[in-house]
Amino acid sequence: MLDVVDGDTLVLDIDCGFDIKKKQRIRLSGINSPEINTTEGQDAATFVRNQLAQAPFVVVRTTKVDINGRFLGDVFYSFDSKANIEEVYRGGRYLNQELLSREMGDRM
User: Fold this and answer.
1) Which of 2, 12, 38, 107 is deepest in the core (most CB within 10 A)?
2) Residue 83 structural domain
3) Is 53 helix (H, G, I), strand (E, B) or coil?
4) What is the number of structural domains in the chain?
């Protein structure tokens, strides 16, 4: 992870293989986090930053590019440093869902 722009947008260093890496903005699919200049937006960004700071790597599944040039994606991660890409993708934590669950919990 290079940066958390806000609760629903990340800047990641994507490993494309063959020693090729690309810096890319990823918008979390299905997430519309509060604006960063609000308390709720700061809380969402802090949550994302804290979760991903503990992960050795993330796995991203992208679907398409939005009107702002960001790839829409689902982000999976694990705190287990021994987990491989397949394990993280199939059984790791799903950041998009965690943000939705937090938002729903705040509303109840």
Assistant:
1) 12
2) 3-107
3) helix
4) 1
